[in-house]
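== Sequence entry ==
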Amino acid sequence: MKTTQRLHDLGQSIWLDNITRSLLDSGTLKRYIDELSVTGLTSNPTIFDHAIKNSTAYDAAVREKLAQNKSGEALFFELALDDISRAAALFRPVNDRTDGVDGWVSLEVSPLLAYDTTSTLAAARDLYRRAGQPNVFIKIPGTKEGVPAIEEAIFAGIPINVTLLFSREQYLAAADAFMRGVERRIDAGLNPNVPSVASLFVSRWDAAVVGKAPDSLSNQLGIAVARRTYKAYRTLLDSPRWQRAFNAGARPQRLLWASTGTKDPKASDVLYIKALAAPLTVNTIPEATLKAFADHGEIGAILAADGGDCEEVLAQFVGAGIDIDALATRLQDEGAKSFVQSWNDLMEVITAKSAALKQAAAQ
């Protein structure tokens, strides 16, 4: 049995952190579903930027959208929604078989809206409607301004992937927003089963403290933060508040491990996959890491519900001068800015490709 299958059987969903038109056209994504137990997919502006910039696979579609007088952001979302809808159709059997627990594809609202609650909610409503598939998550960042939009989106029945979470505290704020949305639906006599995941970014922690902590602590911070967050997740699921919602028909907002590709070339290329095996969670894995795990990966000990030794490890980082709370805030701010930069790069790619295709058509 493949290691990916054993991880899936343990209760962790394996999602691919990538989407390109060639993945869809070549049948590679379908092969990952059939052979590597992949049951979902996530995307972000950086992924689409690389996919469109480094390929001619989108040229025909760009020409078609240009003929419809689409440009810039509007043209991009037409391309993205085409890919997302096709991927969602591939995962639809998984979604049906699991009664909506698994088989999801994620599309992000414009990162330019990360600090605009009203516009984020409006964009989430619009993209979910246009996707035309029930198994599409709309990604909303778990920033201070994003949290109210998360609550309102859940109350409106929109499946949400909360992104850009870096700490237990940021996760708990997002989980509370999810719970408030669910509880409002219960109070209003609506179906409280609105799917959601909360995405905790892991590897960026370790990249942020290179050279700032002892070598003996290398590549341990992200995993320790994940374990601390997992403890908070399991505590919430054991709480009377959650159990009341569950009794009314709600389902958990699953915790998702994001940014699980290893950044340190000296470390194992499957470091975070092995370390973060846990039931009722999702790991969204970069394509190269997925292949590596299928080839030579191992499943480590299942995460302890009490977080294991996370507090002892985190205390060592604090002792080394690392301010965990301040770093979490910085990482979230930097993550939002990074997605904005990728978005701006993506818009430049769309503009340049549109101009080149128009020029070629005129010759």
Notes: The CA atoms of residues 120 and 286 lie 26 Å apart. The two ends are 55 Å apart (CA to CA). The first strand starts at residue 12 and ends at 16. The beta strands are 12-16, 38-41, 105-108, 136-141, 160-165, 196-201, 254-258, 281-285.
